[in-house]
Amino acid sequence: MSDEIYMARALELAYRGRFTTAPNPNVGCVLVRDDSIVGEGYHQYRGGLHAEAHALLMAGEKARGATAYITLEPCTYYGCTPSCCDALILSGIIRVVVSMKDPNPRVSGKGIHRLQQAGLHVSEGLMALEAEKINCGFLKRMRKGLPWIQLKLGASLDGKTAIANGESQWITSKESRSDVQNLRAQSSAILTTSSTVIMDNPELTVRYKELDSSALELYPVERFRQPIRVIIDNKNRITPQYRIIDQPGETWLVRTKYNQLDWPNNVKKLDVKYDENHLNLYSMFLELGYKEINVILVESGAKFAGALLNAQLVDELIVYLAPKLIGDTGRSLCEIPPLKRLKDSLAFNFNHICRIGPDIKLILTPHIVVPNITSVDE
């Protein structure tokens, strides 16, 4: 069998960790000797064994003389677990195929060099694009200090998110809302604004029973972590009475001051930069990256969605389109400044299109450069 087939299996294994590994990367490993898989594994959760360790435990003595297919360069340092490079060398592995180098400064080529020094044959770059997709959040944070930012919107066919009086439940289908649970579960944090909290009083949690069957088979409910809820509250309008506060996991408030209300222990203030009382978005995302947030899912109203798009901060735009028409009085998908020229419009590439129940799910990435706006009012 070819290297590509074994690396594809390693990538498939790595993908299984998408709900629980953050802030660590998703990594898969397959050990092959005499054209047979003798061991395989993936990183399951932070603090647990790395993918290489799982595969070596499964292989035992059969690892000697084998080839290791690993989706990310193995680590060289002792963190929560021992060095994977040392474990591979001691096992008697003779060849290592790495999909991509780890941009983490603690590794960043050191793992490949360590293996080569020990006499192992190492190749790098096989199916690197696929490996990038699995760890887009971790890789962006390591390279730029910023999380991967997904903006999720639900709308009618004519691009409306609510009728004129603000009613928006439910434009999209039950199936689309269940699919959003998978997005939330894969996110390190969910970002919203106080305006959305006041209007909808949401919980913004992962509803475990609505996850897809493959996720439910892999992990028991106690293994799932709730993403951190981040609320932009420039005017200090949120109080402990909102449902989002009384939920499992942490809530972080982005605000200028922290009043003396009776906040539960899971509520914290996130200190970020303000420019003349305007929130500096770039500074906020840098701070979230510093706090090891890999992926942020934004669930907000049209005003904040437009601000993010104009600030060139959205990595993926995810839109659920329902087969409904609301009309001109409805609320628009996002608020962006009026254009004087059509060529200045925000353009995107379609990365993925699929049916979710009666709806259509679109995943898009920005196509052109737009003007920078890095501060925002709520």
Automatic annotation (TrEMBL):
Pfam families: dCMP_cyt_deam_1, RibD_C
Residues that bind substrate: 168, 184, 204, 207, 299
Pathway per the UniProt entry: Cofactor biosynthesis; riboflavin biosynthesis; 5-amino-6-(D-ribitylamino)uracil from GTP: step 2/4; Cofactor biosynthesis; riboflavin biosynthesis; 5-amino-6-(D-ribitylamino)uracil from GTP: step 3/4
Enzymatic reactions: 5-amino-6-(5-phospho-D-ribitylamino)uracil + NADP(+) = 5-amino-6-(5-phospho-D-ribosylamino)uracil + NADPH + H(+); 2,5-diamino-6-hydroxy-4-(5-phosphoribosylamino)-pyrimidine + H2O + H(+) = 5-amino-6-(5-phospho-D-ribosylamino)uracil + NH4(+)
Domain CMP/dCMP-type deaminase: 1-123
Origin: domain of life: Bacteria
Coiled-coil annotated residue ranges, if any: none
Residues annotated as catalytic: 52 (proton donor)
Entries under InterPro entries matching the protein: APOBEC/CMP_deaminase_Zn-bd (IPR016192), CMP_dCMP_dom (IPR002125), Cytidine_deaminase-like (IPR016193), DHFR-like_dom_sf (IPR024072), Eubact_RibD (IPR004794), RibD_C (IPR011549), RibDG_C (IPR002734), Riboflavin_Biosynth_HTPR (IPR050765)
Cited function: Converts 2,5-diamino-6-(ribosylamino)-4(3h)-pyrimidinone 5'-phosphate into 5-amino-6-(ribosylamino)-2,4(1h,3h)-pyrimidinedione 5'-phosphate.
Family the UniProt entry places it in: In the C-terminal section; belongs to the HTP reductase family. In the N-terminal section; belongs to the cytidine and deoxycytidylate deaminase family.
Protein name, as recorded: Riboflavin biosynthesis protein RibD
Organism, as annotated: Candidatus Erwinia haradaeae
Lineage per the UniProt record: Bacteria, Pseudomonadati, Pseudomonadota, Gammaproteobacteria, Enterobacterales
